[in-house]
Amino acid sequence: MIPTQPPYPPQPPYPPQPPHGWAPQPRNGLGTAALVLGIVGVLFSLIPIIGIIAWPLVIIGLVLGALGIVRAQAGKADNRGVAISGTVLSAFGLVICVLYTMAFATAFSGGSSATTSGGGSTTASVGSVQRADRTTPAPAPVTSGPPGTTLSTDDGMEVGAGPLRDKTAFVGAVKCTDVTYRNGSPSTESFNIWDWKLQDPDGAIRRVSIGSNNDLSSGELAPGGTVSGQVCFDAKEQQQGTWTVVYEGGLFGSENLTWVN
């Protein structure tokens, strides 16, 4: 009797072939992640102190957004608009983070210089008797004036603001003024468009209008250096009364120079 061979084990079925013209679905993860990080980064960047969390979010979002745009251009993704939106939001959040950092650095350097330059009263010794030098108190600094007046800050920066002008910008009605800086101190000082704000007749404080023609940039001035430019504020409600231009020396500045219009 011939022994029978054991049956062969069943072979696994071949996987189904994709239909003709089938192509892999595009992967849109990078662009979507960039958009999410950009939105969260912008929201965190607007919060003082806590905004430090936004730094890694917007940087990663910027990188992922750029990669998502490259993948979309190569046909590997189909959400190019989402990737571009994520990149723009991440870049905007990064700009806000940089502005906050500059403002903190300016405030810190201003406080350090004030502490260094401050001094106590001197005494003169005659035998065993000491007396304090009697000096005439300095007159109080002028901190307010009409448009066109040049006022001085505590650190020696000479600042001026011209009359307000009504203009129409992309964002609507704005009020603009021409401002000037002259560094009268012996050290380098900073200037910034965020040094300025506007108080309307009702007492509401208005910041600089982002969508207007603000040609004042930001930077530093060497001793004796000057710079000027236009600064515009939102003025959609045309209230009648007194408008006051205010210089406060940055987002967290302690100066309070005013020009009453």
Automatic annotation (TrEMBL):
Compositionally biased region (Low complexity): 111-129
DUF4352 domain span: 178-254
Spans traversing the lipid bilayer: 29-47, 82-103
Keywords annotated in UniProt: Membrane, Signal, Transmembrane, Transmembrane helix
Entry annotated with the keyword ATP-binding: no
Entry superkingdom: Bacteria
Name under which the protein is recorded: DUF4352 domain-containing protein
Native species: Pseudonocardia saturnea
